[in-house]
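Supplementary material to the annual report.
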Amino acid sequence: MSNQQVEISLEDLRQGSEVALKQVYEDNRAKFINFAKRYNLPQDDVIDIYQDAYVIFYNNIMSGKIEKFTSTISTYLFSVGKYLIFDKMKKNNKKVGPDFDLTIVRDEDEIMHTMEIEEQTLTHEQKLLHTHFSSLGKQCQELLNLFYYRGYTIKDILDLGKYNSENVIKSAKSRCMKTLRERINSSL
Amino acid sequence: MTNEDLLYGFFSNSLTETEEKQLFELLKTDANFKKQFEFENNLKQVIKHDESIKLKEKLKAFEAEIAPTNEQKNKSGFNWRIAASIVILLGASWFGYQSFFGVNYGDLYEANYQEYPNTEFAITRSDTVNSLERKAFVAYEAQDYESAVKLFENLPSNLQKPYINFYKAQAYLKIDSIDKAKTLFSFIINENTQFVAESHWYMAMIALKEKDKDKAKKYLRVLTENYDYNKAKAEMLLKKLN
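Predicted assembly:
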């Protein structure tokens, strides 16, 4: 895959293109299944891991952690996938291999260094935050999503054309955060 | 730059290296700033969590579209009558073969043996240091087992980590140096550190290769009774050997 093609795909994905999302999923699926064969895992687990790797990869693009591809999309997906496979193998073999150290993989892999892997479960504080975030109006949820998930700057948000000025965006964000805090505090 | 600006820059990935250092310093010294940072970071994680769930659902839907297509492909041009006849014929021959000659160790070995993947040493293109251990694992992953054996053997003692013996044994097994593989697997089992369950499995594989039914059963029993590794396969094999 040439760098130019990769660049276009990154931008397509970042723009939230459904077509690109599906295309990348399908293009790498068979290759990943083939790559994972050597680890002797059931096919359902492999598909599950592929999807989790894809989610992590996609989240990192969306949050701006991956700004530019230095490898092919497959390399990114396989690096994350391999990390998840090792993690699964470690969990499956709890009784053996106490010295098995996942940090060996994580530390030495440059790609994994740039990736952010979120915890699967939410902490108590996060659950509380989740409840009240879900109760916010649609506009607030969208604005906070652009800011915290997509890593957009105020200017990026202005460029989307939904707001008239940077000050309007800043005030809207402050109001949303204030409401969120108030709702959490009143529930404590 | 105000504290607010620092937080804004952090969450929009626009901090310079110096500003980032300033932020981490403040996190250590200013409790209020830390509280504010954690609140926003938690919010980020919450939104990401929601988005991940939505995306995973989408991927499952893609998968559901792909899976029936694959099944259909498999169905097309497939003659079930011929397949059924072949299965019956093979079954009958297997039954006859089993009745007259007992266990076919070669088949059992071929059906169950697979070299263990490298799960210990991650090889990436970005590695700057071409270490001796890396070279050995590169050869192992490239299935160049002759070279892998030499490279594993030549690792200096400070690089002889507990898992090296296991991979060395794997490489020996691949090049048919069975006795050396056996010695190493036995050593691992006796040392009782890493890859103990796996070593039992491979000792059972070697016993199959050597048509030693009792030994194969012995290792498989220890494996099924004490470990989870390849448990289902080991139980299946035990049934066949009994």
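Residues 1-8, 94-108 of chain A have pLDDT under 50 and may be disordered.
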